[in-house]
Amino acid sequence: MSTKLFVGSLPWSVDDEALREAFEGHGSVVSAKVVKDRDTGRSRGFGFVEMENSSEANTAMKALNDSELKGRNIVVNEAKSRS
What we know:
Low-confidence stretches: none
Distance between the termini: 21 Å
Order of helices and strands: EHEEHEEE
Number of helices: 2
Mean pLDDT: 97
Largest sheet: 4 strands, antiparallel
Radius of gyration: 12 Å
Structural class: alpha+beta
Shape: globular
Helix content: 10-25%
């Protein structure tokens, strides 16, 4: 079963493909999406990455949390479901 990760503090220059590339070295990425403002189309500074399974997600989370991506330290946590 796939696991979704929340990625915060993204630089404005990161797009879906750059986000995918950052995580692919740590496992199979099912999807990578940078959340954009619906009015301006600009990044909101966070996104979500869905990994193939929980062990790959944990590996990516440990490796990338507080790591640098295009000049900013990013935050990576397991995504919480909306209630």
